[in-house]
Amino acid sequence: MRMVVKGNGAVAHAVRLSRAQVVSAYPITPQTSIIEELATMVARGELDARFIKVESEHSALAGCIGAASAGARTFTATSAQGLALMHELIHWAAGARLPIVLANVNRAMAPGWSIWTDQNDSLSQRDTGWMQIYCQSSQEVVDSVIQAFRVSEKVLLPTMVVLDAFFLSHTYEDAEIPEQAVVDSFLPALDLPHKMDLEHPAALGNLVFPDRYMEFRRKMDLAHDLALDVWDEVGREWGQLTGRPYGVVEEYRLDGAELVLVTAATAASTARPVVDRLRDAGVPVGLVRLRVFRPFPAAVLRSLLGGRRKVLVLDRNCSFGHHGVFHQEVKSALYELPHAEQPRVCGVIAGLGGRDITPDDLGEMLTGVWEGRIQDPVTWWDVLPARDPATAALAMG
Amino acid sequence: MAIDISSYDPRNLHLPDGEILSSGHLACPGCGAALGMRLALKALGPNTMVVIPACCWAVINGPYPFEALSVPVLQVAFETAAISASGIRAALDTQGKKDINVVAWAGDGGTFDIGFQALSGTVERNDDIIYICYDNEAYMNTGIQRSSATPYGAWTTTTPVETPKAEPKKNMVEIMVEHRIPYTATASIAFPEDFVRKVEKAKEIRGAKFIHLWISCPAGHKSEERSSVKIARLAVETGVFPLYEVEYGTRYTINHEPAFTDVSAYLELQGRFRHLKDEHIETIRRNIRWEWERLRAKEEMGRKLSLPPDVVRAAVGDGETTAG
Fold first, then answer.
1. Cβ B87–A198 below 8 Å, yes or no?
2. Residue among B21, B25, B74, B98 with most chain A CBs within 10 A, to mutate
3. pLDDT, tens digit, 9 for 90 and up, residues B283-315
4. Do the Cβ atoms of A86 and A112 come closer than 8 Å?
5. ipTM score here?
6. pTM value?
7. What superfamily does domain B21-315 belong to in CATH?
8. In angstroms, rounded to a whole number, what is the distance separating the alpha carbons of residues A372 and A362?
């Protein structure tokens, strides 16, 4: 059924179609309408689930961990401060190998208070063992949430489905909401191998001495390796079912591209017409959109970017003290290429705290890199000069 | 229910035969937490899932791949015992397994302090779990630091004898009572039949149940291992720790009228109180009298009050309640 739906509504419909059994969640702007819609669906019997209306995000994820440990398909949603409050349990959910799906609406971290988008909240959870997938449209949100349950339950790792605040969470778009029968055929009921079971009582999560701990962590890393292939297979299978195939990255006009823009989320959909326009003007530019960020598709990026002249990585985030996060990761992946095939990589940090990244911005960035006007390893885009002389002096060295 | 004093004789105890706690656990000699778990599981039986946050029991149950309990155990983050149990309950409900007991078993730190918020949320929602706080009155697992359950005057490593704890113990039971949950009770390892009865009663009630179990801790209380039950009994008989239960935040029942033995008999068995001067002990005596006046007044008031009109909330969707 085609619907005009917000990104947040797309999440709720996908959770309903995935037959989540326990939802445990706490409101935070701009995620709130996800759980409002789910609460209504549960109240009306459209979703046969228990909704635990907890007193904090910390408890939201702890509730999911308890429910998932007892074998239920579980979901929660959050943003920014809420995700940060969950952090202890973000580690816990992955370490306990629980296939929880969490929708994170990217929101900038305080202070100063911001409800608008950037990626520092989700990227701060990079090293926890969660899978992360960045979406660009309501359609992709619907499809990715359903796929996330499937992949998570296969490799026993939780998935964070990430969508931009407002640009995606609150923007109405046309999307195909699949039929229940289609989703049922794609996503069988969860049968967690290590669930709490009276017939086979075990202690889960107890003390592990140094002679065993590393083996558990090694298995998590191996599961991530496996997951990269699983995301690929599942994206293809979803394409056969619905006509909408997905890969771990999305390629756009890479034929003959000598400059490739690498970015994620809605900035990529803004970039596509810019790429078209520049191609028309004779600039050989293409686009790679990062979709699955953990596990990181390093080999795929090497095959797509190796031998190009230049790469521009656009980050809506910053790892303070060392570049944007996507920039770091792309560079680290390309380091394994033979020297002659290594493109020159520049990074731009833009759009923090919800600032627009416009087609004009993207056009200037790309032509600036192509024509050599932008050469610094990292450029902060469209930032006012510091007005305080002391700060300015500090910043200028 | 009044307690039969004959139950003081360990040869004359009437307790369920089943044992779910096996030997080989890692509790210290004289540990009240091990005895408490053993008794609780006798009452709960094998149809039980146990949540254990960071606390002594996270160690007592044994390291991977061992465990001392023959029921499923989920060890969880320090502050999440209550909500983790709620999550398990929700999952079991969706699987139609409403008859499984879900028990959160947490220490005083995980209950009075770091786990307080999640516990309040869980009991406010009246989630159908049994929460048992085994209270040894300090952070014993990390090596005896003060908690908000540490009593006035006690030594801990963070309240050294130069500045022993100046504040009274937080009254966790009354905080739970004010959530108006179906059942709140105190219990003691020295009164095993009373404790077992309370756990069995909690099993039969839908909604949130909270049991506050006082336990001895030889390592943390600086007491003799062989005196653990004696000290626990004196906590009750001196009036320091009253045994009572409360239904729907209203109906108070004092289960045992203490002998009101002078509190010095209780204090002198524990090194953590050795530094106290007569004036401090007199303050403790006065405080015991003050607390008992309050408790008796509440019991008296509860007799006159009807149950709160909204207690039937426990029945919504379930068709069951113990209110009546």
1. no
2. B74
3. 999 999 999 999 999 999 999 998 887 764 544
4. no
5. 0.95
6. 0.95
7. Thiamin diphosphate (ThDP)-binding fold, Pyr/PP domains (3.40.50.970)
8. 15
